[in-house]
């Protein structure tokens, strides 16, 4: 997912129109459309910071440098996540470490949702096999 896709996705998730974002940034609609279509790929920091505030995210997420905190849930969930990661990676299992490294590279919500569905299916299969 590129910068423009992340901008558009966040804007639509928040129910904002292009016009709403344009007004808040003091830009015209065409400029916002150009950001979303990647016609302007290198967003200046003077735009990136206020845009990330408007879209309730971070400049790093918009640029694709980090996983959005929304994908990890609340603070308690994040702390639990960090503990699980530490426990998971402490075990000397190359497959688990490879899986963990792959998960940490996921950047978009759709990828995380796909992983969640796979994990749910595996958990259901495990539950069904223990019932038999």
From TrEMBL:
CDD domains on file: HTH_XRE
Domain of life: Bacteria
SUPFAM superfamilies in UniProt: lambda repressor-like DNA-binding domains
PROSITE patterns: HTH_CROC1 (PS50943)
SMART domains assigned: HTH_XRE
Location of the HTH cro/C1-type domain: 7-62
GO molecular function terms listed in the Swiss-Prot or TrEMBL record: DNA binding
Protein name: Helix-turn-helix domain-containing protein
Species, as recorded: Clostridium disporicum
Lineage: Bacteria, Bacillati, Bacillota, Clostridia, Eubacteriales
């Amino acid at each position: 997912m590129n910068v423009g896709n992340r901008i558009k996705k966040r804007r639509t998730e928040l129910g904002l129109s292009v016009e709403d974002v344009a007004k808040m940034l003091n830009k015209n609609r065409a400029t916002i459309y150009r950001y979303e279509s990647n016609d302007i790929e290198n967003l200046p920091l003077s735009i990136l910071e206020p845009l990330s505030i408007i879209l309730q995210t971070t400049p790093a997420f918009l640029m694709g440098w980090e996983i959005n905190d929304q994908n990890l849930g609340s603070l308690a969930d994040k702390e639990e996540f960090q503990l699980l990661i530490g426990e998971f990676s402490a075990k000397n299992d190359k497959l688990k470490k490879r899986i963990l490294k792959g998960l940490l590279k996921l950047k978009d919500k759709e990828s995380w949702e796909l992983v969640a569905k796979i994990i749910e299916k595996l958990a259901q299969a495990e539950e069904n096999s223990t019932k038999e």
